[in-house]
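Open question from group meeting: does this chain pack into something compact, or does most of it stay loose? Before anyone orders reagents, we agreed to write out a predicted structure and look at it together. Recording both the input and the output here so the notebook holds the full record.
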Amino acid sequence: MFKTTKRLALAAALLAPVTAPAEPSCISDAIIVFDGSASMSEPAPGTEGEPRIVAAREAMRRAMPEIAAWRRLGLVTYGPQGHPKSCDSVDLRFPPVHDAAPRIIGEVEALRPDGDTPLTSAVRRAADALDYTARPGVVVLVTDGRETCGGSPCALGAELAAKGAGLIVHVIGFQLQPDLEGHPLFRPDNSVHKADCMAEKTGGLVVTTETVEELVEALRETLACPVVSLLD
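Structure tokens returned:
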């Protein structure tokens, strides 16, 4: 079930009917970290439907044009083929730029999911590209599971919070996989591998989604420009 905060939900509602500016108006840049691991080529748990990547691509096609009108966006991916070791498969596709929607959509359309899930390294790569120690920024991780390459999201979250100049990491879980004990891989008990730890330590949102519509809304919520003066 989709969950978020009232503050960002109201911000998204306020932005929706307003004509987009000629240049993005959000002060801080953002990078989307997109899961291209092998599990994205599989259907959601308990279904025989289309691979997750099909729904995720549709959500990006719907959400990106609206979001990119307000904020400079970049893209990091992990998991696709072409790397000798899948845990080294983190790619900065491009840093934040104006009008990034066509490039993001094109990159996600071209992904062929494969390999493991080095999400910690991917978020670090995004943070570095945002120059997180010098200026504020936003990282939005879209993933269907937990870290599988030995990284520690909790340790990274603590480091980003301690050294960052206002970096926020939001974590969106999409059609999450259950583990062998029936718990979401997104949030395993007593594990340093839980991805949501990065959001908790940097003041970001943790959002779980199942449908295309929920993923679109989660992207809008986490990447909306804050309208602080109207919300306080």
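Observations to bring back to the group:
The chain is about 35% helix and 15% strand.
The beta strands are 29-35, 73-78, 91-97, 137-143, 167-174, 206-209.
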